[in-house]
Specification:
Elements: H1 4-13, H2 18-25, E1 40-51, E2 54-62, E3 70-73, E4 77-84, E5 92-95, E6 119-125, E7 130-136, E8 147-153, E9 161-171, H3 176-186, H4 204-212, E10 228-231, E11 241-244, E12 249-256, E13 263-266, E14 272-277, E15 280-287, E16 289-292, E17 297-303, E18 309-317, E19 323-330, H5 352-356, E20 370-379, E21 384-387, E22 399-400, E23 406-413, E24 419-423, E25 428-433, E26 436-437, E27 442-443, E28 445-448, E29 453-459, E30 464-470, H6 473-478, E31 481-486
Parallel strand pairs: 1-4, 3-8, 9-12, 11-19, 20-23, 22-31
Antiparallel strand pairs: 1-2, 4-6, 5-7, 7-8, 9-10, 12-17, 13-16, 13-18, 14-15, 14-17, 18-19, 20-21, 23-29, 24-28, 24-30, 25-26, 25-27, 25-29, 30-31
Bound molecules: copper (II) ion (CU).
Residues 385, 419, 470, 472, 475, 480 line the site of copper (II) ion.
Length: 487
């Protein structure tokens, strides 16, 4: 997310609107193309939800028939018109997709934001299927739920399975600008204490310092204290209850659209089979608990028992007891109220699962043509976040790479906080953790916990100007962002 100044600069610098670019790439030859499939309309809008019994005005991305986001099929073009129905500029990023760079939805990089009342058109091929999502990359709109699912069906999807999308989000009644201002003012100290906060808030900045000095301090987690955690817009006080068939097969598509919060997915008594991360297939792993960092997705197959029963799918906040979730109701079993605190605090996310993941379709084995080391840096007390000690401004030169290269990024976390790092426009493979090489998952967002080193590899096969950043919203806005550019 860019600062307002950056957005204005980007708007001034951009020579063409997105709409112009999209049309230039699909010039109408003698009038409208009658064979082209119709465009899907996505409306950016204000909407009202109820959180903890109180009304809340948030954003949404919906089709005219009320559908949130998009469900489509691999091989079909992504032909979309975004209509900005809110009273400020906006721009939507198709998280995990690989469009031409001008259609990537990052204001000031891909193109200008869409003004209120304006539209932008998108048209590009979908190279692969899976669970993706869309969200505003403008300002702090993501915190107000300007996000939606983006599901691309492919040959992996079985006819006999029921699909269930679970969108996780963190919610505060405090306006995002104010959350950010308070973080800036005094690091995490300005935030009220959590109900079940592990360390006293006043020590958090110093703990970050300890971790920076190489101490084995606990990681610094959850620097914003939220009012609620939502699963499909609802809390466990009034959760979504989804009817399922006893003995039925489910595919859970879990999307962590939270601005700042990671979770442990807790399937209770049920074993789940993890078959994809960030949309890309992995060798299946069976478990009852799976970690999910900000912006990541998990595709989990579940078999519902033959007996009637209520089966919660919970997401427990990292390092705390607070939880959210949905309930799968099989048959006519009663649905009990689930408390919004788990029995015990969860742990911090680790790389244990990441190190066990193996891509079904790994990148071709190849030596890197170019390697960039990117230190994840920052100052918790001042709430400055940066890459290689540079907080991003539009003047920061892009990292050089060249078309056709195999590129490796060495990510070294020198801070006391975990950072989920996201590359735009390319899928990458996790190829090393702390010096151990392996053919890990192909994905678009990888968690780098404090003091850990993760290496990712990708093929530079989509020329343009691309963002690379921490997906924690307030870290991103503080400058933990850079770009790569090649032609
Ligand atoms: Cu971060």
């Amino acid at each position: 997310m860019l600062t307002r100044r950056a957005v204005i600069l980007g708007t001034l610098a951009a020579s063409a609107s997105l709409r112009t670019i999209a049309q230039a790439q699909n010039p109408p030859a003698g009038g409208p193309d009658r064979n082209a499939p119709p465009r899907t309309i996505l409306q950016l809008q204000r909407r009202n939800i109820v959180v903890n019994g109180k009304p809340a005005s948030v954003y949404g991305i919906r089709q005219p028939d009320g559908t949130f986001g998009i469900m489509t099929d691999v091989g079909k073009p992504f032909r979309v018109r975004v209509e900005n129905g809110i009273d400020e500029p906006s721009l939507i990023h198709w998280h995990g997709l690989t469009p031409p760079w001008q259609q990537d939805g990052v204001p000031g990089i891909s193109g200008p934001p869409i003004p209120p009342g304006g539209t932008a058109d998108y048209d590009f091929p979908l190279r692969f299927g899976g669970t993706f999502w869309m969200h505003s990359h403008q300002g702090l709109q993501e915190q107000l739920l300007m996000a939606a699912p983006l599901i691309i069906h492919d040959q992996r999807d079985r006819r006999d399975q029921q699909e269930i999308i679970v969108m996780l989000a963190d919610f505060s009644f405090t306006p995002p600008d104010q959350i950010f201002a308070e973080l800036k003012k005094s690091g995490s100290k300005a935030q009220p204490a959590a109900q079940a906060g592990p360390p006293p808030i006043a020590t958090k900045a110093s703990m970050g310092g300890m971790a920076q000095m190489g101490g084995a301090a606990k990681p610094d987690l959850n620097d914003v204290k939220y009012d609620a955690f939502l699963a499909n817009d609802r809390t466990l006080a009034d959760p979504e209850v989804i009817k399922v068939e006893p003995g039925g097969r489910m595919l859970l598509r879990i999307i962590n659209s939270s601005s700042m919060s990671a979770y442990h997915i807790d399937l209770g008594a049920l074993n789940g089979e993890l078959i994809a991360v960030d949309g890309f297939p992995v060798a299946p792993i069976t478990a009852r608990n799976f970690p999910i960092a900000v912006a990541q997705r998990l595709d989990i197959r579940l078999a519902i028992p033959r007996a009637s029963g209520a089966y919660p799918v919970l997401a427990v906040l990292e390092g705390e007891q607070r939880q959210t979730g949905i309930i799968l109701a099989a048959g006519n079993a009663p649905v009990a109220r689930i408390p919004d605190l788990a029995k015990t605090p969860s742990t911090a996310l680790t790389l244990d699962l990441e190190s066990r993941l193996r891509a079904i379709r790994p990148l071709a084995s190849r030596k890197a043509d170019r390697v960039h080391t990117i230190n994840l840096t920052g100052d918790m007390a001042k709430y400055i976040w940066s890459l290689n000690n540079v907080a991003w401004t539009p003047e920061v030169p892009p990292l050089p790479i060249a078309n056709g290269e195999r590129v490796e990024l060495i990510l070294v976390n020198q801070t006391g906080m975990p950072h989920p790092m996201h590359l735009h426009g390319h899928e990458f493979q996790v190829v090393e953790i702390d010096g151990k090489r392996f053919a890990g998952a192909v994905r678009d967002t990888v968690l780098v916990p404090p003091r850990r080193r993760v290496v990712i590899a990708f093929d530079a096969n989509n020329p343009g100007w691309w963002a690379f950043h921490c997906h924690l919203l307030y870290h991103l806005d503080a400058g933990m962002f850079t770009t790569l550019r090649y032609v």
